[in-house]
Design brief:
globular, alpha+beta, 37% helix, 484 residues, 4-stranded antiparallel β-sheet, 7-stranded mixed beta barrel
């Protein structure tokens, strides 16, 4: 809220007004946002130049109709107080033949894919796929893919991941043919997708739990969905279908300036600059990111809280650190993306978490890079920005406030348990037969009953660990505040 108010004040005190060309450009940007989800309900208010001008974009209504309708047909909607004319969109060739209900269409009850089928057109193509799988190669291959009941589409794919490349069930990155985004999960539509095997995820629930908690805390802009995967009809088990970070941010943000993935700060590993692609833009965004992280060592500790908030969503970062400490995540320093929006007063950095599958594990590298916290309220903090917690009493005090709110209001153990139950229900719903369950070889269950029992054991263990961790942290918070 403080950031938005400050930016608004900067805009309204600027000389000059938005001319018609500038206004059209802004409206075009608003039309682009949302992609296949349609125009967002927004208002554009132009201040200055002889009074306010408002372009109304709110009050969207949805109408369901089942075709088939060809694209480009003019239709008119008439109500008691208004009429509007619109053009039918081009038909979706992939989903033709799926039964349509007008009420479902009006409420956007889309036939989300529960299954993904990979098929190879020739025996040679399948042999090449098996060879790449055995070699843990990230080389691309051609494949045909079906999303649920949709018609098959051509695609390019490759195995991905560092540690997971050694798994029998490997992660996949898939690029669907053509520029048309396919609707993958509620809130997710793209022509690219990730399929995460969860082969290193104990009980297959850690990452999905962390993602859902982060989404509720505005720390995860990506959406996901459990799907069962087959390759030429052979079950490969349940995967987590996940959006790709950069593609999602580029579609959802009006003025994305850069996306950076942090690497291992203690060993000064260089960051990955995932956006933009041009050399000048990459230099611009990494210089500003480094200026942000260097501030921790350049600004007096008493001034650090204010200094970090100038161009960084510090409270969101503290919320993310609080969640990782709460969930005792043993490996997260390089599992975060920082993205900048290009705003009138300069870039504004935010973040989102990534690949949180190491819940309730020991800190990696035996914790030798983790900062020592005399209050015991952090865990495995290794990043350059994390040092602000230790050098600045003001930043640490703010972190304690954020952690308290997380434990008592935003994500108390009861809410975590509720979210975990939802993850468990969605995962088990995809375990449709024993062949699918046996394909999840990490557990080694002979049937779905054995696999579900292993999942339930992990869920129960997580609930107990969350309860115990919350109790320890709340006691530590009380001791910290009592000593001040």
């Amino acid at each position: 809220r403080d950031h938005v108010v400050a930016r608004l004040e900067a805009v309204t005190t600027r000389a000059g007004a938005l001319d018609d060309a500038g206004r059209a450009s802004v409206l075009a940007t608003l039309d682009r946002l949302g992609g296949p989800w349609g125009p967002q309900p927004r208002d554009l208010r132009v201040v200055g130049g002889g009074g306010d001008r408002v372009t109304a974009r709110a009050g969207l209504r949805t109408v369901g109709a089942c075709g088939p309708f060809p694209g480009g047909v003019k239709l008119e909607l008439a109500a008691a107080d208004a009429r509007c004319t619109f053009t039918t969109p081009a038909p979706d060739a992939d989903t033709r033949g799926i039964p349509c209900d007008p009420d479902d269409a009006a409420s956007d009850a889309w036939p989300w894919p529960d299954t993904i089928a990979l098929r190879f057109d020739t025996a040679a193509a399948r042999t090449a796929f098996d060879a790449l799988d055995a070699a843990a190669s990230e080389q691309e291959f051609d494949v045909t893919l079906s999303l649920g009941r949709a018609h098959p589409v051509d695609a390019r794919a490759h195995f991905r991941g560092q540690s997971s490349l050694g798994c029998g069930r490997k992660n996949l990155a898939v690029n669907l043919a053509g520029p048309t985004p396919r609707r993958l999960a509620p809130g997710a539509a793209d022509d690219e997708l990730l399929l995460i095997s969860l082969c290193l995820d104990s009980g297959y629930v850690n990452q999905a739990l962390a993602n859902r908690l982060m989404r509720g805390l505005d720390l995860m802009p990506l959406n996901d969905r459990f799907v069962s995967l087959t390759v030429d009809g052979e079950p490969r088990g349940v995967y987590l279908l996940l959006q790709k970070p950069v593609d999602t941010l580029r579609r959802d943000l009006a003025r994305l300036a850069g996306v950076i993935r942090r690497r291992f700060d203690p060993e000064d590993k260089p960051e990955d600059i995932d956006f933009p692609d041009d050399e000048a833009g990459r230099a611009w965004v990494i210089d500003r990111y480094h200026a942000l992280t260097a501030r921790v060592g350049e600004v007096a500790p008493a001034e650090l809280l204010t200094a970090l908030r100038v161009d960084f969503d510090l409270d969101a970062y503290l919320r993310w650190l609080a969640l990782t400490s709460y969930l005792h995540n043993g490996d997260f320093v390089d599992e975060v993306f920082f993205y900048a929006s290009d705003e009138s007063a300069g870039p504004w950095f935010r973040l989102h978490g990534w690949d949180s599958d190491d819940l309730f594990t020991d800190c990696h590298h035996q914790g030798r890079f983790a900062f020592e916290d005399p209050h015991g309220l952090t865990f495995c903090m290794e990043g350059d920005l994390d040092r602000a917690l230790l050098v600045s009493d003001a930043v640490y005090a703010r972190y304690v406030d954020v952690l308290t709110a997380l434990l008592t209001d935003d994500a108390p153990p009861s809410l975590v348990a509720e979210v975990l139950d939802g993850v468990r229900a969605d995962l088990v719903a995809r375990l449709s037969d024993d062949a699918t369950c046996r394909a999840m070889t990490e557990v080694g269950a002979s049937d779905c009953a054995g696999l579900v029992a292993a999942i339930d054991a992990r869920v129960a263990s997580l609930k107990g660990a969350v309860e115990a961790r919350a109790e320890v942290l709340l006691e530590g918070i009380a001791a910290y505040r009592g000593a001040r």
